[in-house]
# Entry
Amino acid sequence: MNEAWRVAELFTLAGRVIDVRAHGEGNINDTYLVTIARKPQPSEKFILQRINTHVFKRPEWIVANMRAITEHVGGKSVHESGASNRRWELPTLRSTQQGEDFFVDSQGAFWRAINFIAGARAFDTVQSQAHAREAGYALGRFQRLLSDLDPGRLHDTLVGFHITPRYLHAYDEAVSRPSRVVESPETRYCHRMIAERRHWASVLEDARDRGRLQVRIMHGDPKIDNIMICEETGQAVSIIDLDTVKPGLIQYDIGDCLRSSCNPLGETTSKLDDVRFETDLAQAILEGYCSVADEFLTENDYAYMYDSIRLLTFELGLRFFTDFLAGDVYYKIKYPEHNLERAMVQFRLTESIEVQEAAIRAIIADLIPFAAAMAAK
Ligand code: GN1
Ligand code: MG
# Structure
């Protein structure tokens, strides 16, 4: 924390740092909320992060991508077609006293700071249908803002991210290595879930290879706690955590947003039997999403929506379980079985999606005319 305080001062141009505290529930980076006193003006807050360089090997690419995004979006949101005058902003970088976008400390740790989205908060779990709709809206609005930026302009900050066959490969490797993990009904369940679905894990990559889906710019991590909701209006005002914004399939985003936002119990719960994918929430998210995304969605994007939802949920189960087998080297954990429990939640959610396939496909089918009707307005 002392180091965070010292670094916070380097990102402070005017005023004095009066508080630095751990912030949020991120599984990868270390995040701090910094408060600066600027008397007689009101105090100011910003977010300071130490980037996990085991995960992000080229952290300077993350800040370069953020710069490119900010420049592209610029004052655009006010002129965007169909954009109402509701509040909307994206996180932006804060510079050091030297005018740099990041700071590398004497230990080699990589730090960067971003503005704090005031008057808004994120939630760990979905609160209501209205909240779900706003989450979908935020994702659609974000993707639309970047839909005319050439994906080739952005770096690949995390090679292989969301390429499910690569996670299967990592799982096979973890299984082949000696592990401290003792077999149990829970681990057997996870292994079985993977064995029964592995033949289908390349569904999105195959579609991309066949030209049915295009590489565009994705957010990469549009889970519910990355959606900022205005405390006054209840509307989404931002989507944060831009570290994984890079070229990819927007299907990963759709799947990830739904697997996170349609699970009211959240990513960690011991009430496994109650884990359920709520189709009412799915409908609300997809309506919010399509109300802004319809202008760039193709017929194939709709055709692969169901697979995206099922696949990303399965993928998260696979990734959490692999990390459990590998000795918890990727995600931060709070107790020894945390990754196993997270994996079980995602696999239960996968099963819940599968048994409701017809209902989910019907919701998606209904959205195609819904999107067309919105566009005609
Ligand atoms: C990680 O650190 P955080 O919470 O922003 C992970 C996401 C997962 C998420 C699950 C780079 O995100 O892919 O969906 O945990 N990010 C990375 O909570 O692997
Ligand atoms: Mg993230």
